[in-house]
Design goal:
By secondary structure, this protein is mainly α. It is built from six helices and no strands. It folds into two domains: about 90 residues, Helicase, Ruva Protein, domain 3 (Orthogonal Bundle); about 45 residues.
Length: about 150
């Protein structure tokens, strides 16, 4: 049992290490302040291959290229905003892990709420429309047949 636990623990540690070391030593900047800025920017950018990871966490070749690009732009003197704007201009807003709410994507943000409201309205109106409505009353022949079936 201890061997199994140790093997599981080792497997989880290796999985964690795989994502922790996505940024290679040859990519890192010698200036700690610039490297910290690069890491902060990289955490905001989506890996276009993995899509649910930041480029800082991804081992994909495209993520590496983007990390290098971010560091090159910072080394050239760009501000954090300029680097992000450059990458967005090149790859579109999809590259941002947290895209801003704007006129272009407002429908995507509002769609779930609108669908819930329309569905709730439909259910409310459908339920309200059936209240107070009764079916056609039974004829005398149907009432006699019902009494026969029930044994009354």
């Amino acid at each position: 049992m201890k061997v199994v636990r140790a093997a599981l623990a080792a497997a989880f540690l290796m999985l964690g290490a795989a994502t922790a070391f996505a940024v290679q030593p040859d990519e890192m900047l010698s200036d700690p302040a610039l490297e910290a800025r690069a890491r902060a920017i990289s955490a905001e950018l989506r890996c276009m291959v993995c899509q649910n990871q930041s480029i800082d966490d991804s081992d994909a070749e495209l993520a590496r290229d983007l990390r290098v690009l971010v560091r090159e732009r910072l080394s050239a003197g760009d501000s954090d905003r300029q680097v992000l704007d450059f990458v967005v201009a090149r790859y579109g807003e999809f590259v941002l892990l947290r895209p801003p709410l704007n006129a272009r994507n407002a429908a995507l943000w509002a769609a779930p709420v609108l669908i819930l409201l329309i569905g709730g309205l439909f259910v409310a109106l459908r339920g309200r429309g059936n209240r107070g409505k009764t079916g056609n009353p039974l004829s005398e022949a149907e009432k006699r047949e019902l009494r026969n079936i029930l044994g009354d």
